[in-house]
Amino acid sequence: MPNNIKPKFENDQDLLAWNQEQGRISSESILRENKAMKMQRVLGRSGIRELYMNCSFENYKIEHEGQRKVLKAAKRYAEEFNENIASFIFSGRPGTGKNHLASAIGNYLILHGKSILIVTVADLMSNMKGTFSGASNITEENLLHNLSTVDLLMIDEIGMQTESRYEKVIINQIVDRRSSSKRSTGMLSNLDHKGMKNLLGERVIDRMRLGNSLWLTFEWESYRQYVKGDEY
């Protein structure tokens, strides 16, 4: 070997250490790839829409103290999820970041091994009514059971639906089952506190207060017009 070239390894121990480090790096790479593939499969079943699949607490847009406050509270909720049975309600104007933070909570929990589901009231009721069909291979009870056993169920667009007694009964049953089994529920709505109470009733709202529950109000202007779809 020329005098100006030094060997990469001085001894057998250096070579062994290098091989072990390369093995560790390779294993971590495989784990990351497997985790990413698992994440995609889970996200496909989670109900998180494509626009929100990459939403995180880190890429939530902050322009004022109100947004900073809801971000901090939502992040704390996710981090403390295992320690309580708290639910949450995000209410306020359209386009103010409710779905972003709800999806960030969902994505965080998925990465930590939890099962989550986001469903709109319209899709929820459509699936419920679909169980009445003779061609359906799932009953209303089966569907209620599935909705009641995920670690976190988030119901979106509350107040957008045509108000009906059946919808109130179904939402009441879901919240009742989940709270009784110590499982958390999230709700997203453009309605304020009074509107939510009038729509769902005091019983549901009271159950949503169990534990150290969270009610965040998003009062600022919509920034949806600035979303291009490639921010995340």
TrEMBL record:
Task: Give every IstB-like ATP-binding domain span.
Answer: 29-205
Entry keywords, A to Z: ATP-binding, DNA replication, DNA-binding, Hydrolase, Nucleotide-binding, Primosome
The protein's superkingdom reads Eukaryota
UniProt GO molecular function? ATP binding; DNA binding; hydrolase activity
Leader sequence range is none
Q: Which GO terms describe its biological process?
A: DNA replication, synthesis of primer
Q: Which reaction does it catalyse?
A: ATP + H2O = ADP + phosphate + H(+)
Q: Which PANTHER family match?
A: CHROMOSOMAL REPLICATION INITIATOR PROTEIN DNAA, DNA REPLICATION PROTEIN DNAC
Q: Which family does it belong to?
A: Belongs to the DnaC family.
Recorded protein name is Replicative helicase loader DnaC
Q: Which organism is it from?
A: Aphis craccivora (Cowpea aphid)
